[in-house]
Write a structure and sequence with these properties.
heterodimer; A: 222 residues; mainly alpha; two-stranded antiparallel sheet; 2 strands; 29% helix; globular; B: 153 residues; alpha+beta; Ubiquitin-like (UB roll); DNA polymerase, domain 1; five-stranded mixed sheet; 12% strand; Cytochrome c domain-containing protein (chain A); signal (chain A); Multihaem_cyt_sf (chain A)
């Protein structure tokens, strides 16, 4: 997700510089007892975040054209290709034409100017092609996220570390929950996203359409 | 704070979140970079930071560190123009000229890494630099001429 999550409070308002190295999150347990049903509920919330414009708009496919979802104007909420003929290229950072960083500067300062290109503490970029989420069903995205071949080589603990590291550097996940400048944030908070990720991992990373696990025998059926 | 612009070091007493464009124009009197929109939608303020084109209206001076800033004033001189500047003259690109500082800086950075661009490459690289006079055909021609000159043709 252009990749997201957020220490909601710190970046909002007039916070000065992001405190690098301090993620400010409570790390949930990955070994808690979580039923598959509760895991799927957590997945639904994760999917809601992943497919929110703050996240999915840079998780595009081979066309490498990021998306814009308008905040102002005649049709707020409308999604369309990024203006200015922008193309991320095979590099996914626009190196072939115009670098994302030409306008999306790298800065941990809060986003405060309406209409200005957003920035984060990481160099702006499209998500890798194997992380494409546009045009995918929830089950397809779920299968991607739990597959180390398509999620950056991460197991459950790696997914948690991905989020906490992002918070430390004020990255894209963090930005997604505190985009500033009038943009609608992704649903929930960075902490709730972390909690949902942990619950989903603890439940065994269930995906929609997975075969249901065999039920434990009950006294009545014995 | 210290800023290095066009090879000269400057000492400034400004807020760290001041956009570089403000610092250049209002504090240092370097007025080649132009204010157009203030939100990176037009490209008139484009400068180079360590060789990369950057919209200076978006760049907080406190985030620049020791990087070298180059403005149109540092790209070439009237006596020794950069190939893009010379091509701008040869093609008489400018009409009102307000955008040309940003256009030239964008084109110069682009040609550093793309020595033989196609028309499509040029259009994609230059599309976020607006010209309200509509000189886009001359901009494309000048970039092609500059590319050829930089290649030694």
């Amino acid at each position: 997700m252009r990749i997201l999550l957020a220490a909601a409070t710190a970046m909002a308002c007039a916070a000065p510089l992001w405190a690098e190295g301090d993620h400010g999150l409570t790390i949930p347990s990955l070994t808690a007892e979580v039923t598959p049903e509760a895991g799927l509920e957590a997945w639904d919330r994760l999917h809601e975040v992943f497919t929110h414009p703050r996240c999915i708009n840079c998780h595009v496919g081979e066309e490498a054209v990021p998306l814009w979802t308008t905040t102002h104007g005649a049709n707020p909420g409308e999604t369309r290709p990024h203006g200015m003929n922008i193309h991320g290229g095979d590099s996914r950072v626009g190196a072939e034409y115009i670098d994302c960083g030409t306008c999306h500067v790298t800065s941990t300062r809060p986003n405060t100017t309406p209409g200005a290109p957003p920035h984060a503490g990481l160099d702006w970029q499209l998500a890798p092609l194997e992380f494409q989420w546009t045009g995918k069903t929830p089950a397809e995205i779920c299968a991607q996220v739990r597959d180390p071949e398509r999620n950056g080589g991460r197991d459950g603990a790696g997914l948690i570390e991905h989020i906490t590291h992002d918070a430390e550097v004020a990255g894209f996940i963090t930005w997604g929950f505190t985009p500033g400048a009038g943009r609608e944030p992704a649903p929930g908070s960075l902490q709730s996203h972390l909690d949902d990720t942990a619950a989903w991992v603890a439940a065994g990373m269930p995906c929609p359409g997975d075969p249901l696990p065999a039920s434990a025998p009950t006294e009545a059926s014995e | 704070m210290e800023l290095s612009v066009n090879g000269t070091s400057y000492s400034l007493d400004v807020e760290e979140d001041m956009p570089l464009l403000w610092a250049l124009r209002d504090e240092l009197g370097i007025t080649g970079p132009k204010y157009g929109c203030g939100i990176a939608q037009c490209g008139a303020c484009t400068v180079h930071i360590d060789g990369q084109a950057v919209r200076s209206c978006q760049m907080p001076v406190g985030d620049i560190g020791n990087a070298e800033i180059t403005t149109i004033e540092g790209l070439g001189t009237p006596e020794a123009m950069h190939a893009v500047q010379q091509a701008w003259v040869d093609h008489q690109v400018a009409q009102c000229g307000y955008c040309q500082s940003g256009q030239i800086m964008q084109a110069a950075a682009f040609l550093e890494t793309h020595p033989e661009p196609s028309d499509e490459d040029i259009d994609r690289a230059m599309s976020s630099n607006l010209c309200r006079c509509g000189t886009y055909p001359r901009i494309r021609a000048a970039v092609k001429t500059a590319a050829a000159k930089l290649q030694g043709a």
